[in-house]
Each structure stands twice: as C-alpha cells, then as structure tokens.
Amino acid sequence: MDRNDVVEEKIRTFVRQRPALPDEPVPQSTNPPPPPTFLGGGIDVDDDCLDVTETSICYTANDQQRCYEVDGGFDGDGTQAEVYEATARSIVDAVGSGYNGTILAYGQTGSGKTHTMRGGISVSEAGITPRALLQLFELQKQSDATLTFSLSYVQIYCERLSDLLGNDTDELSIRDRPAHDGGGVYVRNATRVPVTTPRQALDLLAAGDSKRATASTLMNEFSSRSHAVALLHVERKTKDSLQRSTLTLVDLAGSERHAACAGRYKRLEESRAINLGLSALGNCVSALAERRPHVPYRDSKLTRLLQASLGGTARTALIACCAPGGDATGETKSTLEFAARARKVVVRAAPRDVAVDYQSLYEEVKDSIDDYRTRERKALDEVESLKDKEEATQQRILELERENDALKHALQRQQRPVVEGDQVDVIEQLHAKFNDDTEEAERRHAAELRTAQSRADAKIKAYRDAAEVSARECDAAEAALTGEREGHLASLKELRRVKAEFRETEARHAARVSELIEEVAAAKGEGEAKAQEADKAADALLKRVETLEVSRQEQLETDYVSRDAVAEMEKLFRSTIDALAARLEDLEGKRVSDVAAGRSRGRVSAGARAVLESLDAGEDLPPLHERFGGRRRAKPLA
After folding, report:
1. For residues 19 and 112, what is the distance between their CA atoms, to the nearest angstrom?
2. What DSSP designation does 623 have?
3. Does the model's pTM come out above 0.70?
4. Which of 186-190, 463-467, 595-599 has the lowest mean pLDDT?
5. How far apart, in Å, are the Cα atoms of 47 and each of 18, 43, 50, 225?
6. What letter would DSSP give residue 517?
7. What pairs with residue 317 in β-bridges?
C-alpha cells in the first residue's frame, strides 16, 4: 500500500432539519395527553430553535444562542439530491476505489433519519441508499477494474443482532477480521447475497425492511425500534491486485423520552435498549474526540459493529437529523452536541489490499470450467433428445402420410362413377358385399373372442395356481411365524428371568462392593498408619545411622593416624634403631672394655640394661610397638 493512498481526515458532519409536516392524529393513549410532539402537529415554525446555514448551525433556547460549526447544513427546503451530493457522493467514489465508507443518520425519533437514508417512492425523493447503489453500478461500468457487489442487511434490536436477509430468529455475532485480510470487524454467518443490478439490491432491502422492528409511538407513527445496518461489500479486481471495501449505511433508531412510550412495557424496554446503544455510541465518540487511550467499543453491539467506521479505517459522514420547532425536551441540543464531538474525531482510511489467493482463483476457475462442461453435457443431451424426438416425429409423419394415402385411395374407390348396369344392381351388389364383409368380420371377431377367452382361461388358471401356491406359502409362513412368536415369548420370559437374576446379582454385588470399599478404606487407613509408623522408624534408623557415622568419623579422627604419618614414624623408628644398634655396638665394645676394666652396669639405664641383657642372652630385640606400649595403631587402608 502506498503511503499516498492513506487519507487522514475528520468525520464529516452535516445537520439536516426536516420540514414541518401537516397536522397528523397522534395515537390514542390511556395516559394524559403529552406536550406537542415533533410530528408537525402543534409546531409553530416561527418559534424554530435552529438557524441553519451552509457552514454553521445556531441553536437558540431561553434567550441564549450557541453556534456549531459543521461541514454542511440543510434546512427544510434542502432536497434529497442536494443532501446526497454534499454528504455521500465522495464517499461512494472512494468505496469504488477500494476504501471503506460509512454514512450514519443520527437523531431523535421522528427527525427524518429513515427518509434521509431510504427516501420516498418517487425518483426525486430517493434517499442516500438508492442513490449510492446507482452510483456504484455506474462506477462498475466506467471502471477499468472488475467490480462485484454483494449485500448484507442486519439489525440490532434490544442488543440482539439478527439477519434481515436470512433467518431473523438466529442471533449473529461480531468477530475480528484477521490482519492479513485488512483487520476490522465483520458479522459472522450474516447472509451475503450477490447483486448485479440496483433494482435487485433495493428489492432485497425492501424485503429486509419488512422484517425490521417498527412500532407506533407518541413521537412517530412508524418509529424504527432497531438500528438497521446495510453492508454493501465491493470487490475490486485488477490484473495485479485484489481490493475489498465495504459501504456501511446506518439508519439508527431515534432517541426518545420514556414518556413517549405511552406506558407500554415493550416500548419501554425497546426505548431503554435504543438509548443504551446511543449512549455507548456517544461515549466512544467522546473518547475518540478527546484521544483517550481506551475507547469502550465493546459496551454495545452498535459500537462494536461500527468500530472500523469510528476507529479510523473508513471515510465517515454523519448526518445529524433535527426536527423543526422548539426544543422543549432538549433532544435537538443533544443531537447537535453529539455532532460537534464527532467532528473532532480523526480517521485514517486506506484501501484494503488483499493478498491474491491463486489457489482460490484456480479453484474458482476450475469450478467455473466444470460448471461450463456440465452445462455443455446437458445441452448435448438435450440436443440428442431433440434429435430422437425429431426422428420419432418424422416417423409419425410418414405413418400419417401413408394412412392419408390409404384413406384417399379408399375414398376414390367408393366415389368411382357407375359406368354400366342399373343402380339397383349396384345397390344389391354393395349390399351383398356389405353382408359378406359383415359375416367375415363376425367370423374374425368370434375367432378373436375364442382366442381371448382361451388366453383369459389360461391366465385365470395360472392365477389360481399361483394363489394356491401363495396360500400354501402363507400357511407355512404363518406356522413359522407362530413358532417364532412362541420362541419370542419364551425368549421374553427367559429375558425377564435373566433380568431378575441380574438385578439380584447386581444388588448382591453392590452390597459386596460397598463392603469391599469399606474394607479397602479400613485397610487403607491401617496401611497409612503402618506406613507412618514405618516412616517414623525409618527416620529414627536414619538418624541413628547418621549418629553412628558421625561417631565413627570422630573415632577415626581420634584413634587413627594417617598412613603417611605411620610411614614417617617407621622411618624415624628405623633411623632410631640404626642409631641404637650403632650405640649398642659401641656399648658392647665398651662393655667388654668395662668388664675387662672391672666396671659394673649399675650406672646404665634400665632400658639400656634390658637391651644389654637381651644381647647377652643372644635374643632378638622386641618389636617396636611392644617397646613403645602399643598405644598407636596405623589407620587401615580404605
């Protein structure tokens, strides 16, 4: 999509004041008569509260005046053609170029909204809808692209969305359109009828209007009790692109006071639903005008349906319809305030390009080819059938020609003139010939009668034989059926017995199952208790093991030394022993010298004396651990 294709503009707002109508009778009510209504009765045009110009609307009430800027204003003298040219033509042109477009008629009950949108019967009184259809079909003829149209028509009645072209008893739903298809919302399961002419579209709308909810109120004899939305879908195809757009034509139900319902409950409920939808519409317009971050589209189905029209993907025009005369109830001012807020809303419209689905196009072309071939086969079959009929007709013509020739020949024979003889002889001859022919015909008739009688007798005999065979077969079938019936009765008795046994068994099983469930529950409780005890014992055992491990570790750390320490000690011991051995050798030598010198061993230590005594006795030295008391043990290898 080209950036230049984006159109950023405000909602175009127009105000139309309908002309005063002649006095009309107001529907009777059991309530006291209301104040003068806006149907025209009791209106003094000289006391009109509006001053309408082309660019502004001045509202006067209680000696105070306020002016509202608009894109166009129409007083009671404004024609339907002028309203369409100013409000709708540019939007319809944009729809034909791929943009979405929306035209709304807003106002109180009896202000001329339906007349603005639909118009009257004559061509000059045609409203926006028929004129838009005519313009689109004219664009179809003039455009280089291929334009196709389809129409949907729905209404919102008491917050219930229904289809005016299909089954109006089924409630429709509003869904979000995927982003790859342009976004926005659509009505799911709404009937979409392809239209090829404006007349066809208008006939569909007329059929939908016959289902639309209308009623008589104190404000309007034919008041619309629902919001009607006509959706004209446009598909624009070129060689390189596919664009889809929608022209949304909205005829809103009019706002009204509860007093106008004349105390009728149904009218009151309708009025509440209408005012609720219009109030939600006003809240959304206010949020958009003030550029709030959240717009409450989902407060009403009306605002949800018009989300794309209000939220900025459609070129939108609003026609605020006002009634002439004074504004005792403030409805005219409320309408103008709504139009002023809507004029501040900015929309950004752009053509909705759709990715060309070549698979769908292929399937469409394939279906069209198959349809063409089917029609071709039907046409060929019809041609063959016509040829057969023609041949049969020719045969019949030939037969009729031969019969005609035979009749002509017989007639010529009967009409030949008598050349000789008397006329009496001729008559007698003819009489004799007639008698002969009669006798011959009687003989042939009698022979044919005898033949037919014999054939009939043979058929009767065959029928009787077949009847006897059938009777025997029927008897056999009846006997078999009797046996089957008796067997069936026996089966039924057996079935009843089995059912009774089954019930008894089921009751016993149910009791047993209950007992088993109780036993299982008890066993489960005991099991859980034992499991808890086992868990406690296991926890105690684990704690004991952990304690023993800690004690063992502490004992190992206290009573054992490492292998390296033992090796160091043994090395030390060996060096000590070697030193002692050397010392002993010295002492031995010294002892010999001492003995020889006469010295005693009294001055030698007890340990040395023990060693010397062992050496004297020729004994080996005691082990090292015995000599040192055996108080240290080496730490075993892991």
Report:
1. 9
2. P
3. no
4. 595-599
5. 15, 8, 9, 30
6. H
7. 12, 103
Specify the pLDDT at position 521.
Answer: 86
The tens digit of pLDDT for each residue in 263-304 reads 465 677 888 888 888 889 989 999 988 889 999 999 999 999
For 497, the token pair is 């017995």
Helix axis angle for 128-142 and 89-96, nearest 10°, is 40
Q: What is the mean pLDDT of the chain?
A: 78
CA dist 21 → 42, 45, 122, 299, 586 (Å): 10, 11, 18, 36, 155
Q: How far apart are CA 128 and CA 251, in angstroms?
A: 11
Q: What percent of the chain has pLDDT over 90?
A: 20
Higher pLDDT, 262 or 15: 15
Q: How many helices (H) and strands (E) does the chain have?
A: 14, 21
- For residue 242, what pLDDT band results from cuts at 50, 70 and 90? confident
Q: Which residues pair with 173 in a beta bridge?
A: 188
DSSP letter (8 states) at residue 329: S
Residue 333, phi then psi, degrees to nearest 5: -65, -40
Q: Beta strands of 18-112 (E only): which ranges?
A: 50-52, 56-61, 64-69, 72-74, 100-107
CA quadruple 319, 12, 96, 155: dihedral positive or negative?
negative
Contact between 293 and 277 under an 8 Å Cβ cutoff? The reply is: no
Q: Which helix (H) or strand (E) holds 236?
A: strand 227-237
> Six-digit token pair at 198?
């404006």
What is the Cα 338 distance to its own chain's centre? Answer: 34
The pairing of beta strand 56-61 with beta strand 50-52: antiparallel
Paired tokens of 122: 């004559």
What's the full length of the chain, in residues? Answer: 638
Distance separating alpha carbons of residues 61 and 200, to the nearest angstrom: 46
Within 10 Å of residue 181's Cβ, how many Cβ atoms?
Answer: 13
The average pLDDT across 551-574 equals 74
* Distance from C-alpha of 216 to C-alpha of 210, rounded to nearest angstrom: 15
Q: How far apart are CA 67 and CA 69, in angstroms?
A: 7
Torsion angles phi and psi, residue 316, rounded to 5:
-125, 140
What does the DSSP 8-state code read for residue 417?
P
Query: Is 80 exceeded by the pLDDT of residue 33?
Result: no
pLDDT in tens, 539-560: 888 888 888 878 777 776 666 6
What angle is formed at CA 542 by the lines to CA 536 and CA 548, rounded to 5 degrees? Answer: 140
